[in-house]
Structures are given as structure tokens and as C-alpha cells.
Design goal:
The complex is a heterodimer.
Chain A: E1 3-7, E2 10-14, E3 19-26, E4 31-38, E5 44-50, E6 56-58, E7 64-68, E8 73-78, E9 87-95, E10 104-105, E11 109-114
Parallel strand pairs in A: 2-11
Antiparallel strand pairs in A: 1-3, 3-8, 4-5, 4-9, 6-7, 7-8, 9-10, 9-11
Chain B: E1 4-7, E2 10-13, E3 19-25, E4 32-38, E5 44-51, E6 57-58, E7 67-73, E8 76-81, E9 90-97, E10 104-106, E11 110-114
Parallel strand pairs in B: 2-11
Antiparallel strand pairs in B: 1-3, 3-8, 4-5, 4-9, 5-6, 7-8, 9-10, 9-11
Classes of the chains: A mainly beta, B mainly beta.
Chain lengths: 115, 115
């Protein structure tokens, strides 16, 4: 079975500061990993995905994540937070047979950005 | 590309009535779509996998007679909440999978309120 754990249900940073959102996964098979962002009352937007190519994945809006198999982690980072980054972030895992379709989500991390 | 449209965005219905939610992939064909449910301040829970031309696969604990899923074409899946009750009030989100490991793209969600 697969699972995802996001450490910290709420993270608060100052504008311009580093954003680090943590995600650890559990999977018995090589996984696909994803980060999504959700704004209030909206669907999910894909930020980036890892599907077995480069372990450092760059996404939209300046976000990136690094797949570390030894640590079973896929943490999301952004060097400098912007007010518009305030949202809910979800890490998700899928096995390769589902081609990234059927997703198991973490609990979510709410990111707040202070002026 | 990769746009998924969900309709309606919100709906209010009376207890005992049925509500249909549509999920359309606008610029790609999706043999598989997924339906999720999200409670306030919580993560997404997979309800079922919708397969074009065949029966949906429901997750454990999801009542298939309550949540009817029809995937009649390669671009449309529908979720019907039958005999809705207030506890069915939730945010329902669909996603459609692209082939080749591209991951899933999400609709904007439907806020269902049963009064």
C-alpha cells in the first residue's frame, strides 16, 4: 500500500523567505510523486511531478522538489515566498501502473505568507 | 492544454433529491477519470475510478448505489448523488488521467450543499 505524510498542517513564512513543505512517502514499488496547490473553493493545480527522470524537479511558479529515495522524501521548496503563494499544498503518490492517475494524497499543508 | 471542466461549480439541493455532477476533459481523451471527496480543511479522499465503457471501481466504504458513476464517452464522466442527505454535503472534485504518465488534471470542484 502507498501512503503520504506531510509534516506540518500549517506553515507560515515571511514574504521573501524560503518555503519548505515536507513530504514523505511510503511505497513498495517505485512511485510517481506530485505536488498540487489548491486555492479556496477551487480544484487542484499541478505544481510539479516526479516520474523517474531527474530527481530534482522544477515546477511552475518557482517551485521545485527533490526526490530522495534513501529518505523516502519529496520536499517542496521555493527560494522566495510571494503573497500569492498562500494556499493549501498537497503531496500525492501514485504507482506506475496507474500512470499518475489514481492518487493518494497527504493531509495537506496550509501555507501562510506574512508581509 | 489539459483542461478538465466540472459542472456545476456549486449546487444546493433538498434532502431526498438527486444531483448530477459532470466532469469533462476538454482537450484530451480520458479513458479513466477519478472522483474525490473533500471535507472542509481536509485532504481529498478517492471515491471511485471511472472507466469509459465499463463499471466504475469504488473504494472501500463508498456506497455505489448512493454515488452513481457513468463514463459514457472518452471526455465525460458523471457522478450522481442519489437521495441526497445533509451528510453528503461536501466538495466533490474530479480528475482525468492523461496517458503516458502525465498525471491527472483536476476539475475546479463542485460544492454540494444539501438542505
Amino acid at each position: 500500500a502507498q501512503s503520504v505524510t506531510q509534516l506540518g498542517s500549517h506553515v507560515s513564512v515571511s514574504e521573501g523567505a524560503l518555503v519548505l513543505l515536507r513530504c514523505n512517502y511510503s511505497s513498495s514499488v517505485p512511485p510517481y510523486l506530485f505536488w498540487y496547490v489548491q486555492y479556496p473553493n477551487q480544484g487542484l493545480q499541478l505544481l510539479l511531478k516526479y516520474t523517474s527522470a531527474a530527481t530534482l524537479v522544477k515546477g511552475i511558479n518557482g517551485f521545485e522538489a527533490e526526490f530522495k529515495k534513501s529518505e523516502t522524501s519529496f520536499h517542496l521548496t521555493k527560494p522566495s515566498a510571494h503573497m500569492s503563494d498562500a494556499a493549501e499544498y498537497f503531496c500525492a503518490v501514485s504507482d506506475r501502473s496507474n500512470q499518475g492517475g489514481k492518487l493518494i494524497f497527504g493531509q495537506g499543508t496550509e501555507l501562510s505568507v506574512k508581509p | 492544454g489539459a483542461v478538465v471542466s466540472q459542472h456545476p461549480s456549486w449546487v444546493i439541493c433538498k434532502s431526498g433529491t438527486s444531483v448530477k455532477i459532470e466532469c469533462r476533459s476538454l482537450d484530451f481523451q480520458a479513458t479513466t477519470m477519478f472522483w474525490y471527496r473533500q471535507f472542509p480543511k481536509q485532504s481529498l479522499m478517492l471515491m471511485a475510478t471511472s472507466n469509459e465503457g465499463s463499471k466504475a471501481t469504488y473504494e472501500q466504504g463508498v456506497e455505489k448505489d448512493k454515488f452513481l458513476i457513468n463514463h459514457a464517452s472518452l471526455t465525460l464522466s458523471t457522478l450522481t448523488v442519489t437521495s441526497a442527505h445533509p451528510e453528503d454535503s461536501s466538495f466533490y472534485i474530479c480528475s482525468a488521467r492523461m496517458s503516458g504518465g502525465g498525471g491527472a488534471f483536476f476539475g475546479q470542484g463542485t460544492r454540494l450543499t444539501v438542505v
